[in-house]
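Incident log, entry 3
Record: Dihydrolipoyl dehydrogenase (479 residues)
Problem: checksum mismatch between cached and fresh output.
Input:
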Amino acid sequence: MSQEFDILVIGAGPGGYIAAIRAAQLGFKVACAEGNAYDDPKGDPRLGGTCLNVGCIPSKALLASSEEFENIGHHLGSHGITVKDLAIDVSKMVGRKNDIVTKMTGGIAYLFKKNKITLLKGYAAFKAKEGDRYQVEITGKDAGLVSAKQVIIATGSKARHLPGITVDNKLICDNEGGLQFDQTPKKLGVIGAGVIGLELGSVWRRLGADVTILEAMPTFLGACDTGVANEAKKLFTKQGLKFNLGVKIESVVAGKNNVKISYADDQGNAQSLVVDRLIVSVGRVPNTENLNLEAIGLKTDERGFIPVDDHTCATAAAGVYAVGDVIRGPMLAHKAEDEGVLVAEIIAGQKPHIDYNCIPWVIYTSPEIAWVGKTEQQLKAEGRAYKPGQFPFAANGRALGMGASDGFVKVLADANTDEILGVHIVASAASDLIAEAVVAMEFKAAAEDIARVCHPHPSLSEVMREAALAATDNRALNF
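Fresh output:
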């Protein structure tokens, strides 16, 4: 006799655990299956998925530690503060990161108990559909058969590996290994200049590593607004990161204590790089291969994603939904969370909506990069008339006082209606500042709306207002 539930969520990452909690709040009997232990000493599943265990949260912990180290070593002098004998204990730093992860994942376990969600410890795979219920096999500590009327697939993604390059997470690492170095490498190579590559490269550069980033694309951060990408590359290069764009990796050979990368540069010339550690960061692929989707008449597309309806995240199998990294759209934790809430509410008969144009992106480098909506190059390609407004943090008193005057805010507004079409930020607090732009765009605000809102002084948020003023008939007041 199988256990019966109203809703079974497969995967306890950001999309899955949030879907489970929202569904439980709405009165459903909910179970959530998770099998990944992420090196848990007891072998129990670690809730939170990639984000909490080997992604967003641990990387931000290391970024914060490395920023503290760099600030003390290089930026306190201008404040009149002198520090002698500065040192970093990498093992303690990594231990702090691990403690934060443990606290966060334990918090989700508490929320499951609070909301009476049944945690099924194991991996889930479809077995069949019988009547109006799906039969799902659990393999692991809670092995057995469960059934549910509705199933939400939220199995996330894993690091994409390159053919011919063996990742051992010792010398050659993906994002997981890049978070676990026991000491700072003297020379670090990174393949891929995307979000993860830049963030991890920044961590170890601040702690003293000589970092070289190899990128196959000929342009830097091609998804970003061109002005933002150019500014970021200039600042990162000044900090000491080395970029080689438009390269073609020929071979990667691990030695006893180092790694040799042979590649062709953007001119086709043969080059080589020898490093102590290598991080391979070339994107992610969905975790869909072990779900046995065929048993319920589903199949993935050529890239491994599960096709879903554009508005409801419903699959072709009635009552089965998919959210987060296993479906179309950006692989972002907050996008997965919103989709988890959306699906739970749709099942409850509500009519939620997600505006995917209003999902913000953030890169947690220093300075941070954040954006929402359209880039200038996208608007030009669409032939849409727009007005740009830009304001630098170098003209902001709060930023100068903080020693965080790099970067700017750019607001793009419709030339005729003044509706905000996109906002792009390079700044130390871009991840927080972008939220104002997201709210404004959700409500279809005009640039003038932000320009007429009173912002606190002195604050970094004033730069948002000044950029909106600049987009409104070039009315910036302080520049």
